[in-house]
Amino acid sequence: MQAPAAAERNKDPILAVLREYAGPGPGVLRVLEVGSGAGLHAAHFAQALPHTRWQPSDIDPQALRSIAAYAKAMRVPNVLPPILLDVSRSWQTWGDTQPASLDLLVSINMMHIAELRCTEGLFKGAGVLLKPGGVLFTYG
């Protein structure tokens, strides 16, 4: 359950911007985080935004275990069990996420390290899975 030092440093500045898009409103906001890594951000953001239903994901099975450990250690009930997700594959393989069902799709520090097909997949998936007015939030 270790996160890169950069994740620790940038979690609050990112949260400040996320609050603009995930502020309190009517109902629960559905969020899918693509490439959750160690899970620090997922647990931190979900804890600060209790009106969200946060779905973390990663392509690395070791990361999935770390994400689950962070959510458990921080006692964050609105973090769903992490799912294995390869963003380069079709959105139909992204768990049970249905078209136009997400309020927010979050991707932090993925695009600059992943292959171009991953970024293309992220944008294609966002076009299908976000609700009208939903936001694709990227960082890094």
UniProtKB/TrEMBL annotation:
Q: Which Pfam families match?
A: DUF938
Annotated family: Belongs to the UPF0585 family.
Q: What is this protein called?
A: Methyltransferase-like 26
Q: Which organism is it from?
A: Heliornis fulica (sungrebe)
Protein encoded by which gene: Mettl26
